[in-house]
Design goal:
Blueprint: H1 35-44, H2 56-69, E1 74-78, H3 81-92, E2 97-102, H4 106-109, H5 114-117, E3 122-126, H6 135-138, E4 152-159, H7 170-182, E5 186-191, H8 194-201, E6 216-220, E7 230-234, H9 243-249, H10 258-268, H11 272-292, E8 298-299, E9 307-311, H12 314-321, E10 327-330, E11 335-339, H13 346-361
Parallel strand pairs: 2-3, 2-4, 4-5, 5-6
Antiparallel strand pairs: 1-7, 6-7, 8-9, 9-11, 10-11
Helix pairs in contact: 1-10, 2-10, 8-11, 11-13, 12-13
C-alpha cells in the first residue's frame, strides 16, 4: 500500500515572479513577511490541532495579550483589518446605532462602505485638521439620542496612529473616552498601526488603550510583519457580549486559527512588534529629513509614525512613480503619501531621495 504521507512532487516547479530586491513607498502592506513570523508559521505546522480557535496557540495567545492589555482582555483573531473593524462596530452598536469618526477614517474612506453595507450601521463623520478627533469635534455629531429620525450615536471610533500619520497622546485618548462615556457612548480604537504609535510615544500599548478607557481594539499585525490576520481585543468585558457569535456571523472565524494566532504570538511574545515599528518609524524620519532639504516639496503633517505626506508638482510625482511605487493622496492638490515598512532600508530611502532631487531638478 502506498504511504499516505508520501509527498507527490508537483508537475511544475514554483517560480519567483518578482525581484525581491525591489521595494517602494506605496504601503506597508506591500512588504513581505518577517522571517521570525515565517519561522513561527512553520513551527505551528504539522500534525493536527483543534479547529476554530480551540488550539494550543490561540489559548497561549490569550496569556500574551494579558501581558500587554491586562487580565480582562480577550483576543479574537480574525482574517483582516476591515473584518476586524466591521465586526467590532457591530458588536458595540444596536441595530439603530451610529458611529462617530473622523472624515478621514479608514472605516469611512477605505473599506468600500463595508461598515454601512455589511455592518448595517451609520457613520457620522467629522472633518479634522490632522486626522484626530477631540471632545469638541465629537460633539458636532453627538446629539439626538431620543430622535427616532436620526441614527443614534453609540460609538466613537478613533485610529491610532491616524490615517494622516499623526499620533494621539494617552491624555488625548483619555479625554475622548471620558467624554464619550459621559454621554453613554463606547470607544473603539482602530489599531491597524498601533505598534508604530506605541513606538512613537515610547509607551506600552496599554497606556493609550485600556488604561485610558478604550472599550475595544482592532489590533493590526499585517502592516507590521505578519502574512495575514489581525485580532479583535475586548478590553472592557461590559461593553460587548457574545463576541464569539458576532465573529462567526461576520465571517471572520478562521478554521485553522492556529496560523493566525502563532503569528500574533511571534510579534507579541517578545519585542518583534516594537523592533519592526521602531525601524519603520526611523526610516520615515530619515525620509522626512531628506525631503525637507529639497526645495519645492512641502511636508503636510507632522511625521510621527511611518508615513510621510507631501505636496509636490504633479508631473514630478508621475515621473517619480515610474521609479518607485507610491500613491497620490489627493491627486488634484498634488498630495502624495510615502510609507515606510519594517523592511525599508537606509539605502532604499537614500535612493528615493536622490530620485526625488533628480526629478525636481528636471
Amino acid at each position: 500500500m502506498a504511504d499516505p504521507q508520501a509527498v507527490i512532487p508537483p508537475k511544475t516547479d514554483a517560480r519567483r515572479h518578482h525581484d525581491p530586491s525591489v521595494r517602494g513607498f506605496a504601503s506597508d502592506n506591500y512588504a513581505g513577511v518577517h522571517p521570525e513570523v515565517l519561522a513561527a508559521l512553520a513551527l505551528a505546522n504539522g500534525g493536527h490541532q483543534v479547529a476554530y480557535g480551540a488550539d494550543e496557540y490561540t489559548d497561549h495567545l490569550q496569556r500574551i495579550m494579558h501581558s500587554h492589555f491586562g487580565p480582562t482582555a480577550e483576543a479574537f483573531p480574525v482574517f483582516n483589518g476591515t473584518g476586524a473593524n466591521v465586526t467590532a462596530l457591530q458588536a458595540l452598536t444596536d441595530r439603530w446605532g451610529a458611529v462617530i469618526c473622523a472624515e478621514t477614517a479608514h472605516i469611512n474612506v477605505d473599506e468600500g462602505g463595508a461598515p454601512e453595507r455589511m455592518g448595517g450601521l451609520k457613520l457620522l463623520t467629522v472633518p479634522t485638521p490632522d486626522g484626530k478627533l477631540t471632545p469638541e469635534l465629537i460633539d458636532r455629531q453627538a446629539f439626538g439620542w431620543d430622535d427616532e429620525h436620526r441614527a443614534m450615536p453609540q460609538v466613537v471610533s478613533i485610529t491610532q496612529n491616524t490615517e494622516l500619520g499623526t499620533v494621539y497622546t494617552p491624555d488625548e485618548i483619555r479625554a475622548i473616552c471620558e467624554h464619550a462615556h459621559e454621554r453613554g457612548m463606547k470607544v473603539h480604537l482602530d489599531g491597524a498601526r498601533i505598534s508604530n504609535a506605541a513606538a512613537s510615544l515610547d509607551v506600552p500599548m496599554r497606556a493609550f488603550t485600556n488604561a485610558v478607557g478604550v472599550d475595544m481594539l482592532s489590533f493590526g499585525g499585517t502592516k507590521n510583519g505578519m502574512m495575514f490576520g489581525e485580532a479583535l481585543i475586548v478590553l472592557n468585558p461590559d461593553a460587548v457580549s457574545h463576541m464569539k457569535h458576532m465573529r462567526k456571523l461576520s465571517m471572520q472565524l478562521a478554521s485553522k486559527m492556529r496560523f493566525v494566532s502563532v503569528q500574533l504570538e511571534a510579534l507579541l511574545a517578545r519585542d518583534l512588534w516594537l523592533r519592526n515599528a521602531r525601524h519603520a518609524n526611523a526610516m520615515a524620519q530619515r525620509l522626512a529629513a531628506g525631503v525637507r532639504a529639497v526645495d519645492g516639496v512641502e511636508i503636510l503633517y507632522p511625521v510621527q509614525a511611518n508615513a510621510v505626506f507631501a505636496r509636490l508638482p504633479h508631473d514630478v510625482s508621475e515621473r517619480l512613480q515610474e521609479r518607485f511605487r507610491f500613491y497620490f493622496w489627493d491627486e488634484a492638490a498634488g498630495d502624495v503619501r510615502w510609507m515606510c515598512s519594517f523592511d525599508t532600508t537606509e539605502d532604499d530611502v537614500d535612493a528615493f531621495l536622490q530620485a526625488l532631487k533628480e526629478e525636481m531638478a528636471r
